[in-house]
Structure prediction request, 95 residues.
Amino acid sequence: MVFPIGFFRVKDRSMLPKIKENDFLLVSSIHSALKEGDVVVLQHPMKDIRIVKRIEKLVGDAYFVRGDNVQESEDSRAFGTVSKRDIVGKVVLIV
Prediction:
């Protein structure tokens, strides 16, 4: 993300019921320390896509992320923890 604020369009159902497919998210790349419960956009560690997940747990310098809709979410249960450099930004608004 080049600008400190950007938009991200949701392309899956992994964050239902709060965040729906085709919702737009306002994402800030400038944020204070991330914490458990924050919703973030991140670079998928194994694919060339960006995804939205919730930080479930801090594991040292890494984050265990998970989708709210666990039945339809590919998340840290599949690809492990993600590093801070994989985080694109924190979701600040659902549009």
